[in-house]
């Protein structure tokens, strides 16, 4: 296995132009994805996780724009590429599964025609090759190829989402980016889809960046985890480490807000307050106004991303001058 990461995001920032000036929705984010890895990005709505995904995929549109940093995929910086250069890589080398399959799929075109359009745009294939590949990827996701003649409204929500995943796998890319692909599904369909995604990953060997707000899905399927809050990564590390020993108070709050189906019954706790206005973010730690462990210096000291056990956490409690060194 190559030592070079498949995807290496460094110091990435994204801003939206607004009436009150630029609003930085993603600020100085680092993300590394190895070949075959499964990285999840979690956080509340509005924390910047979907904006991060769109920036990585080169899909940002005005008023959003990358304002700093790099996105290196197989060693090439996607941020500096033209749209034509990006189109060569999309679908073939990396693909994107959008949040709502009903909105992402063309409602007036059959599934087969949409598969054909994608393959015509990125490869020179004959009609039989296109038909055979379309049937193959539909069967991979458990859909009868007869539905190549179906329109999106004729499929259930779970089938539409599977069809989107099948389209993302047409060229067997090295990286599949998923923006909350299970958010519109019931819990049974969610579980079924995620099991299938994991099986496909093990079969085909692609890496996944998975954006979600559902911590239960993250726990069972990802191996690396980024927790975002107010545009910044507040904790990053192996998924099991973050779940077993959350180092940031925000990560702890997220975990306490989700019920467990195993173990003793415990009272669920929400996180009081609201995320800050990113047009005018507070000084110091952005989570300080909602943090149960807040200290006076949290309001004026901006924390870095410090080592915390097997992970890294953006909290002054883990700053080198606060950590006790064994004598």
UniProtKB/TrEMBL annotation:
It comes from the Bacteria. GO terms for biological process: peptide transport. InterPro entries: AAA+_ATPase (IPR003593), ABC_transporter-like_ATP-bd (IPR003439), ABC_transporter-like_CS (IPR017871), Oligopep_ABC_C (IPR013563), P-loop_NTPase (IPR027417). GO terms for molecular function: ATP binding; ATP hydrolysis activity. SMART domains: AAA. CDD domains: ABC_NikE_OppD_transporters. Keywords: ATP-binding, Nucleotide-binding, Transport. This is Oligopeptide transport ATP-binding protein OppD. It holds the Pfam family oligo_HPY. Residues 7-255 form the ABC transporter domain. Belongs to the ABC transporter superfamily.
């Amino acid at each position: 296995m190559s030592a070079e990461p498949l995807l290496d995001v460094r110091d990435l920032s994204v801003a939206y132009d607004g009436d009150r000036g630029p609003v930085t929705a993603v600020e100085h984010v680092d993300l590394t994805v190895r070949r075959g890895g499964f990285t999840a990005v979690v956080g509340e709505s509005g924390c910047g996780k979907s904006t991060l995904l769109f920036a990585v995929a080169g899909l940002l549109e005005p008023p959003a724009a990358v304002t700093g940093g790099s996105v290196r995929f197989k060693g090439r910086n996607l941020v500096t590429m033209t749209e034509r250069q990006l189109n060569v890589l999309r679908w073939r080398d990396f693909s994107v599964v959008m949040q709502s399959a009903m909105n992402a799929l063309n409602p007036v075109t059959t599934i087969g025609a949409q598969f054909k359009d994608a393959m015509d745009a990125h490869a020179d294939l004959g009609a039989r090759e296109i038909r055979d590949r379309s049937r193959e990827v539909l069967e991979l996701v458990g859909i009868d190829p007869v539905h190549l003649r179906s329109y999106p409204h004729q499929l259930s929500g779970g089938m539409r989402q599977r069809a989107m995943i099948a389209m993302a796998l047409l060229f067997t890319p090295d990286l599949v980016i998923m923006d909350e692909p299970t958010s519109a599904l019931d819990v049974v369909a969610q579980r079924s889809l995620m099991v299938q995604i994991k099986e496909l990953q093990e079969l085909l060997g692609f890496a996944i960046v998975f954006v979600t707000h559902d911590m239960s899905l993250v726990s069972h399927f990802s191996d690396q985890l980024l927790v975002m809050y107010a545009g910044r990564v507040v904790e990053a590390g192996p998924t099991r480490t973050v779940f077993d020993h959350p180092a940031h108070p925000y990560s702890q709050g997220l975990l306490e807000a989700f019920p467990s189906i195993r173990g003793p019954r415990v009272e669920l706790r929400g996180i009081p307050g609201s995320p800050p206005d990113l047009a005018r973010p507070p000084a110091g730690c952005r989570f300080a106004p909602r943090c149960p462990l807040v200290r006076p210096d949290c309001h004026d000291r901006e924390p870095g991303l410090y080592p915390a056990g097997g992970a890294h956490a953006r909290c002054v409690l883990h700053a080198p001058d606060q950590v006790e060194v064994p004598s």
